[in-house]
Give the backbone structure.
Amino acid sequence: MSTPESHLEARSAGLPVIGSPARRDDEIRPLKPPVDPSTLTHKQLLGGEFWRRLPAYRDVTEEQFLDHSWQSKHTIIKPEKLLDTVQGLVSPEFIEDCRVGFERAPMSLRVSPYLLSLIDWEHPYEDPLRIQFIPVGSRLLPDHPKLGLDSLHEQADSPVAGLTHRYPDKALFLPLDTCPVYCRFCTRSYAIGVDTDEVEKVHFKAKVERWHAAFTYIASRPELEDIVVSGGDAYNLRPTQVTEIGEALLAIPHIRRIRFATKGPAVMPQKILSDHAWTDAVTAIVEKGRRLHKEVVLHTHFNHPKEITEITERAMNLLHERGIFVRNQTVLQRGVNDTVDTMKLLVKRLGHVNVHPYYVYVHDLVKGVEDLRTTLDTALVLEKHVRGATAGFNTPTFVVDAPGGGGKRDAHSFETYDRENGISVFTSPNVRQGQFYLYYDPLQLLSAEAQERWKDPAQQQRMIDAAIERAKGQVRPFR
C-alpha cells in the first residue's frame, strides 16, 4: 500500500513514486529556499545627493546637478582642473601618478561631474570608473607588438569619409568626432577628441557636405538595410541634426533599421531628462520610423553596475515610456568587469532598468591601454557563468571584433586558440571568405616563457604562422 512515508523514501532514493496522491490546485511546494530581498543587489541603485561627497560639488543643488547644461558646462577637459577638483581627497603620489598618465594618454580628457562623483576617491586605484577614464602612469603597460592605431581597419573599409561599409547589409556612419566624455579605451582613438602628444587624430567634423556624401553612397547601395549612427557620440548632435540625419536615412527606401549610438546614458543621464528638445527629436524619429515600419533604437554603453543609479533609472523609464528600445554594448576590461559577480550584476541591473544587454566585447587592441585588456579565455569563462543567470534575451553575446576588419565574431567561434602564446584565429565568411583574422591576448597575462618568445620578431612570426596553419586544418566548407 502506498503511504506518505513510502513516497518520501522513494523520492529520497531517486525512484519514481507510484500511486502518489494528486496535488491540490492551491498547493505550493517550495523547491528553493526563501530569498532575502536585501540580496537582490541589482535593484539597489545609488540615490540621494551623492555628489555632495566631493568638496567641489558640496553646494550644488539637486536642480543644478540634474540639469544637462550644468553638467556640460562643468565637464572637466583639462588635467590640472581635474587634479584641483580631487585635491585633498587623494594622496600627492596619486596626483603625480595622474600627471604622468595624462602625458602618455592617447585620448584627451573629458569627464562629467556626474561621472566624477561616482568614483570612490578613498580607493582610486581600484575604482572601476577611475580606471576607465583617468589614466595613471604606474599602471600603463607597453602596447602589444601587433597593435595598430586603427586596429579594426575602419578607414580601410570607408568608401566615403566617416562611413564604414564592412558587412553586406550594414554601415557605420560617423557624423561627428566628439563625445560627452572620452573613454581611455576608445577603439576609435585615431579620430575622437583633440590631438594628444601620442596621437595626431583623423577628424570627422560635423559637416553637412560630408554627411550628404555618405547619404548618397547609402542610397546607391540597395543591399544596405542597417545604419549605425555613432561617432563620436549621437549625444553631441544638436536636436536639429538628429532630425536631419534620421529623416534623411528614413527617406531611403531600403533602410530598415537605424541605431543611434551613445555613451551618454552611462555618463550624463541628465540630458535625457532635461534636454527636452534632444529627447523629443529622438522620440520623433523613432515614432516616424515606426509609422514607416522601420526600427529606430538607441545603443548605449554601460560597463559597470556603479554606472547605473536612480538618475539612470529615471532616464531609462522616460525612454521606455516613449517606446524607445535601448540596447547595451559592454567592453570587457581588466579590473572593471572581468569577474563573474560583477558581470552578472551588470547584466541583471541593465535588465532592471529596461536596457537590453546586447554585446560584451573582448577589449580591442587599442593604443595606450594594454592594462585594460583581458584574455579571450576570460570572456569564455564569464559567458559560461553569466548564461542562465537571467532570461536568454537579456543575456549578452560575448564577441571579438576581429582585428584587421573581420567584424564581430562570437567569442567561441575561433578556428583555433593557442592559449600558451595568446593567439586566437577567426574567420569571417560574410566579410572576406578565406581570410584569417588574429586576436592577441595581452602579453603580461601569458607565461614568462611565452613573453620571452614575443620579444623576438622571428619567433613572433613563427607562432603566428603556426596558428594560421592549425586554423586552416579546422576550417570546413559549409553546404
Observations:
- The mean pLDDT is 93.
- Residues 414-479 form one domain.
